[in-house]
Amino acid sequence: MSDLASAIGIQAAEESFVAELKSGSEAAFGLLVAQYSRQVYSLIARSLRDPADAADVTQDVFIKVFRNISGFDGRSSLRTWIYQIALREASNQRRWWSRHKQQETAIDAVIENEQGECFCLADALAGHGASPYDCAAQSQMKQRIEAALRQLPEAFRTVVVLREIEGFGYEEIAEILDVNVGTVKSRLTRGRNALRETLKKETVKAQPKRANSKNPVQAAEVGAEV
User: In 3D, which of 102, 122, 126 has the Cα closest to residue 195?
Assistant: First the structure.
Protein backbone atom coordinates (compact mmCIF):
# COMPACT_ATOMS: atom_id res chain seq x y z
CA MET A 1 0.00 0.00 0.00
CA SER A 2 2.84 2.38 0.78
CA ASP A 3 4.27 1.95 -2.74
CA LEU A 4 0.85 2.61 -4.25
CA ALA A 5 0.36 5.70 -2.11
CA SER A 6 3.82 6.92 -3.10
CA ALA A 7 3.09 6.40 -6.80
CA ILE A 8 -0.21 8.26 -6.49
CA GLY A 9 1.55 11.11 -4.69
CA ILE A 10 4.22 11.36 -7.39
CA GLN A 11 1.57 11.39 -10.13
CA ALA A 12 -0.41 14.08 -8.34
CA ALA A 13 2.71 16.20 -7.90
CA GLU A 14 3.56 15.88 -11.59
CA GLU A 15 0.03 16.80 -12.62
CA SER A 16 0.24 19.90 -10.45
CA PHE A 17 3.63 20.79 -11.92
CA VAL A 18 2.36 20.31 -15.49
CA ALA A 19 -0.61 22.55 -14.70
CA GLU A 20 1.81 25.29 -13.63
CA LEU A 21 3.79 24.85 -16.84
CA LYS A 22 0.62 25.09 -18.91
CA SER A 23 -0.34 28.27 -17.10
CA GLY A 24 2.90 29.86 -18.33
CA SER A 25 4.69 29.96 -14.98
CA GLU A 26 8.29 31.11 -15.52
CA ALA A 27 9.29 29.67 -12.15
CA ALA A 28 7.95 26.24 -13.11
CA PHE A 29 9.69 26.34 -16.47
CA GLY A 30 12.95 27.39 -14.80
CA LEU A 31 12.63 24.43 -12.44
CA LEU A 32 11.96 22.14 -15.40
CA VAL A 33 15.13 23.28 -17.15
CA ALA A 34 17.17 22.93 -13.98
CA GLN A 35 15.86 19.42 -13.41
CA TYR A 36 16.24 18.02 -16.91
CA SER A 37 18.80 20.09 -18.82
CA ARG A 38 21.85 18.05 -17.78
CA GLN A 39 20.23 14.72 -18.69
CA VAL A 40 18.90 16.04 -21.99
CA TYR A 41 22.27 17.55 -22.89
CA SER A 42 24.00 14.24 -22.08
CA LEU A 43 21.59 12.27 -24.25
CA ILE A 44 21.89 14.67 -27.19
CA ALA A 45 25.69 14.90 -27.00
CA ARG A 46 25.89 11.13 -27.33
CA SER A 47 23.38 11.11 -30.18
CA LEU A 48 25.07 13.65 -32.47
CA ARG A 49 27.98 13.28 -34.84
CA ASP A 50 29.43 16.49 -33.43
CA PRO A 51 28.86 16.81 -29.64
CA ALA A 52 29.76 20.50 -29.91
CA ASP A 53 26.25 21.07 -31.27
CA ALA A 54 24.61 19.61 -28.16
CA ALA A 55 24.16 22.91 -26.30
CA ASP A 56 22.22 24.53 -29.15
CA VAL A 57 20.06 21.45 -29.69
CA THR A 58 19.34 21.21 -25.96
CA GLN A 59 18.14 24.81 -26.03
CA ASP A 60 15.89 23.96 -28.99
CA VAL A 61 14.44 21.04 -27.03
CA PHE A 62 13.31 23.23 -24.16
CA ILE A 63 11.90 25.81 -26.55
CA LYS A 64 9.83 23.02 -28.10
CA VAL A 65 8.80 21.83 -24.62
CA PHE A 66 7.67 25.34 -23.69
CA ARG A 67 5.75 25.82 -26.92
CA ASN A 68 4.07 22.41 -26.86
CA ILE A 69 3.40 21.83 -23.15
CA SER A 70 -0.25 22.71 -23.70
CA GLY A 71 -0.55 19.59 -25.85
CA PHE A 72 0.94 17.27 -23.21
CA ASP A 73 -1.89 14.88 -22.35
CA GLY A 74 -0.30 12.94 -19.51
CA ARG A 75 -0.50 9.55 -21.22
CA SER A 76 3.25 9.22 -20.61
CA SER A 77 5.38 10.70 -17.88
CA LEU A 78 6.70 14.23 -18.37
CA ARG A 79 10.25 12.87 -18.45
CA THR A 80 9.40 10.39 -21.21
CA TRP A 81 7.71 13.12 -23.25
CA ILE A 82 10.75 15.40 -22.94
CA TYR A 83 13.08 12.61 -24.06
CA GLN A 84 10.88 11.95 -27.08
CA ILE A 85 11.29 15.58 -28.10
CA ALA A 86 15.03 15.44 -27.43
CA LEU A 87 15.52 12.41 -29.67
CA ARG A 88 13.50 14.02 -32.46
CA GLU A 89 15.60 17.18 -32.28
CA ALA A 90 18.81 15.11 -32.25
CA SER A 91 17.55 13.23 -35.32
CA ASN A 92 16.78 16.52 -37.09
CA GLN A 93 20.28 17.77 -36.28
CA ARG A 94 21.87 14.59 -37.64
CA ARG A 95 19.97 14.98 -40.90
CA TRP A 96 21.10 18.61 -41.16
CA TRP A 97 24.70 17.53 -40.44
CA SER A 98 24.54 14.89 -43.16
CA ARG A 99 23.29 17.41 -45.72
CA HIS A 100 25.61 20.29 -44.82
CA LYS A 101 28.35 19.90 -42.29
CA GLN A 102 29.56 16.50 -43.45
CA GLN A 103 30.45 18.00 -46.80
CA GLU A 104 32.79 20.42 -45.05
CA THR A 105 34.85 17.83 -43.37
CA ALA A 106 31.69 13.28 -34.10
CA ILE A 107 25.71 0.19 -17.05
CA ASP A 108 24.46 -2.83 -16.46
CA ALA A 109 26.51 -3.44 -19.53
CA VAL A 110 29.98 -4.72 -18.67
CA ILE A 111 32.83 -3.79 -20.99
CA GLU A 112 36.36 -5.18 -20.96
CA ASN A 113 39.39 -2.91 -21.26
CA GLU A 114 42.81 -3.69 -22.69
CA GLN A 115 44.02 -5.15 -19.40
CA GLY A 116 41.13 -7.60 -19.36
CA GLU A 117 39.47 -5.71 -16.50
CA CYS A 118 35.70 -5.32 -16.56
CA PHE A 119 33.82 -2.15 -15.78
CA CYS A 120 30.28 -0.82 -15.94
CA LEU A 121 29.50 1.44 -18.88
CA ALA A 122 27.42 3.83 -16.80
CA ASP A 123 30.17 4.10 -14.16
CA ALA A 124 32.83 4.77 -16.78
CA LEU A 125 30.81 7.65 -18.23
CA ALA A 126 29.87 9.15 -14.88
CA GLY A 127 32.00 11.48 -12.78
CA HIS A 128 33.16 10.26 -9.37
CA GLY A 129 35.63 11.51 -6.81
CA ALA A 130 39.02 9.92 -7.45
CA SER A 131 42.75 10.57 -7.45
CA PRO A 132 44.28 12.61 -10.31
CA TYR A 133 45.71 9.38 -11.77
CA ASP A 134 42.35 7.63 -11.60
CA CYS A 135 40.63 10.66 -13.11
CA ALA A 136 43.08 10.69 -16.03
CA ALA A 137 42.61 6.97 -16.62
CA GLN A 138 38.86 7.27 -16.37
CA SER A 139 38.87 10.28 -18.68
CA GLN A 140 40.80 8.29 -21.29
CA MET A 141 38.41 5.36 -20.99
CA LYS A 142 35.43 7.72 -21.19
CA GLN A 143 36.76 9.22 -24.40
CA ARG A 144 37.19 5.74 -25.89
CA ILE A 145 33.65 4.74 -24.96
CA GLU A 146 32.15 7.99 -26.23
CA ALA A 147 33.97 7.54 -29.55
CA ALA A 148 32.85 3.91 -29.77
CA LEU A 149 29.25 4.88 -29.03
CA ARG A 150 29.26 7.33 -31.93
CA GLN A 151 30.29 4.48 -34.26
CA LEU A 152 27.23 2.40 -33.40
CA PRO A 153 24.16 2.48 -35.64
CA GLU A 154 21.71 5.09 -34.39
CA ALA A 155 19.05 2.57 -33.31
CA PHE A 156 21.52 0.62 -31.15
CA ARG A 157 23.28 3.69 -29.74
CA THR A 158 20.02 5.30 -28.63
CA VAL A 159 18.86 2.22 -26.72
CA VAL A 160 22.28 1.71 -25.07
CA VAL A 161 22.39 5.33 -23.91
CA LEU A 162 18.80 5.34 -22.63
CA ARG A 163 19.22 2.07 -20.75
CA GLU A 164 22.81 2.01 -19.53
CA ILE A 165 23.49 5.70 -18.99
CA GLU A 166 20.12 7.38 -18.47
CA GLY A 167 18.69 4.44 -16.52
CA PHE A 168 15.33 4.06 -18.27
CA GLY A 169 13.42 0.79 -17.95
CA TYR A 170 12.58 -1.35 -20.97
CA GLU A 171 8.95 -0.23 -20.99
CA GLU A 172 9.93 3.45 -20.78
CA ILE A 173 12.37 3.08 -23.68
CA ALA A 174 9.72 1.31 -25.72
CA GLU A 175 7.38 4.23 -25.07
CA ILE A 176 9.99 6.84 -25.94
CA LEU A 177 10.94 5.13 -29.21
CA ASP A 178 7.42 3.89 -30.02
CA VAL A 179 8.55 0.26 -30.41
CA ASN A 180 7.73 -2.92 -28.48
CA VAL A 181 9.75 -4.14 -25.50
CA GLY A 182 11.12 -7.10 -27.47
CA THR A 183 12.64 -4.70 -30.00
CA VAL A 184 14.22 -2.69 -27.18
CA LYS A 185 15.84 -5.80 -25.67
CA SER A 186 17.05 -6.99 -29.07
CA ARG A 187 18.61 -3.62 -29.93
CA LEU A 188 20.18 -3.40 -26.47
CA THR A 189 21.80 -6.82 -26.81
CA ARG A 190 23.10 -6.05 -30.29
CA GLY A 191 24.23 -2.59 -29.22
CA ARG A 192 26.18 -3.95 -26.24
CA ASN A 193 27.86 -6.55 -28.43
CA ALA A 194 28.69 -3.99 -31.11
CA LEU A 195 30.13 -1.65 -28.48
CA ARG A 196 32.36 -4.40 -27.08
CA GLU A 197 33.61 -5.33 -30.53
CA THR A 198 34.32 -1.68 -31.41
CA LEU A 199 36.28 -1.18 -28.19
CA LYS A 200 38.28 -4.36 -28.81
CA LYS A 201 39.17 -3.24 -32.33
CA GLU A 202 40.25 0.19 -31.08
CA THR A 203 42.35 -1.46 -28.37
CA VAL A 204 44.15 -3.62 -30.92
CA LYS A 205 44.84 -0.57 -33.10
CA ALA A 206 46.23 1.34 -30.11
CA GLN A 207 48.65 -1.41 -29.06
CA PRO A 208 52.24 -0.74 -30.23
CA LYS A 209 53.70 -3.30 -32.60
CA ARG A 210 57.07 -4.79 -31.62
CA ALA A 211 59.51 -5.99 -34.21
CA ASN A 212 60.18 -9.75 -34.24
CA SER A 213 57.69 -10.37 -31.47
CA LYS A 214 54.84 -12.86 -31.46
CA ASN A 215 51.25 -11.80 -31.40
CA PRO A 216 50.16 -11.61 -27.71
CA VAL A 217 47.50 -14.23 -28.33
CA GLN A 218 50.01 -16.53 -30.07
CA ALA A 219 52.51 -16.02 -27.27
CA ALA A 220 49.90 -16.96 -24.71
CA GLU A 221 49.04 -20.10 -26.66
CA VAL A 222 52.69 -21.11 -26.91
CA GLY A 223 53.14 -20.56 -23.20
CA ALA A 224 50.11 -22.70 -22.48
CA GLU A 225 51.45 -25.52 -24.65
CA VAL A 226 54.79 -25.48 -22.81
Answer: 122
Verify that 78 and 117 share a domain, yes or no.
no
Cβ atoms of 111 and 118 closer than 8 Å = yes
Contacts of 49 (CB under 8 A, 6+ apart): 94, 97, 101, 102, 106, 150
**What's the number of domains the chain is made of?**
2
| 114, 203 contact by CB (below 8 A) | yes
CATH number at residue 151: 1.10.10.10
H runs (alpha helix) in 69-180: 78-96, 102-104, 121-125, 132-151, 154-160, 170-177
Angle at 180 between CA 5 and CA 60, to 5 degrees: 80
Q: Which domain holds residue 31?
A: 1-106
Give, for all 226 residues of the chain, the pLDDT tens digit: 455 555 566 677 888 999 999 999 999 999 999 999 999 998 898 888 777 888 999 999 999 999 999 999 888 899 999 999 999 998 888 777 666 554 443 344 555 555 555 555 665 555 545 555 555 556 677 788 888 888 889 899 999 989 888 888 999 999 999 999 999 999 999 998 988 888 888 766 666 655 454 554 444 443 444 3
Query: Is the torsion defined by CA of 91, 144, 186, 86 positive or negative?
Result: negative
